[in-house]
Amino acid sequence: MNRAVRAVEIVEDMTQQDIDIEVEGKEDVGTHKTDALAEAVAGAVVEAEADAAAEAAGEAEVVEAGQVAVGPERSAEHLRMVEALLFASPEPLDEKALAGTLPDGVDVKGLLAELQGIYEGRGVTLVNVAGKWQFRTAPDLAFLLRREKPEQKRLSRAAIETLAIIAYHQPVTRGEIEDIRGVALSKGTLDALMEVGWIKIRGRRRTPGRPVTYGTTEAFLIHFGLENVNHLPGMDELKAAGFLEAMPPSGLDVPSPSEELAPDEDPYTGEEEGDEMLLLPLQPDPE
User: Fold this and answer.
1) Across-strand partners of 124?
2) Sign of dihedral through CA atoms 209, 210, 212, 213?
3) CA 83, CA 85: separation in Å to the nearest integer?
4) Distance CA 199, CA 5 (A)
5) Residue 54 half-sphere exposure, CB side, CA atoms within 13 Å?
6) Is 220 in a helix, a strand, or coil?
7) H/E stretch holding 202
8) What is the pLDDT of residues 168-221, one digit of tens each?
């Protein structure tokens, strides 16, 4: 409306000039000029009112969806709000959750579409998962964030006993392990020790069925800080550590393990017929 007021002021000023002209005796010229000024005033008023209406519509134009159309500066501010909410949230957010935080009437769906377009092709993208929105690393860059971490596994009591028997009695067969422990040995116990990398199949016994023999690995020596299997704790060390009684039963002796093939042992060359039957336990291995 400022333009309309200014137009009226201009007309009043020019009309006063016409009055002065009429006083000087130029009435006909003043009359024509006054008519032209009236038309100019009318045009200026119409133009001013149109500009005012357009300005008001730009500030608050109500659309059919019940959302308010805002100017570029306000829209950019709303976009920043959506970006901040999604970035700070540990969980995906749906449109309802976003709308509850943003000012009333904001076009949440439009802002999400615009933000998704902005982040398209970047290292972080805006994706829709299960009807909710979340920032995620671009799939083609996942290899940069992959980190391998060794999984810590706690060995069962049966596995620890089996490992000790293999370490001190190697080369030793599964049947010999069961004889020493007094219970059947499950395949899972041996698998767990082999998965850790502490035991291996080292050969075959030259007996009926040719059972495989087990022994410790280099990883076993490295983990326990041993130069070789001959450096395993002996009778005195086991007594000092409290694993043996001060007066052990008579005849008890610590075996001497060997990394070399035994006289009745052949190198392991792979699976042979009948190995499957050797892996079936007679009863569950007690933990």
Assistant:
1) 137
2) positive
3) 6
4) 98
5) 6
6) helix
7) strand 199-205
8) 888 899 999 999 888 888 878 999 999 989 999 998 988 888 899 999 999 999
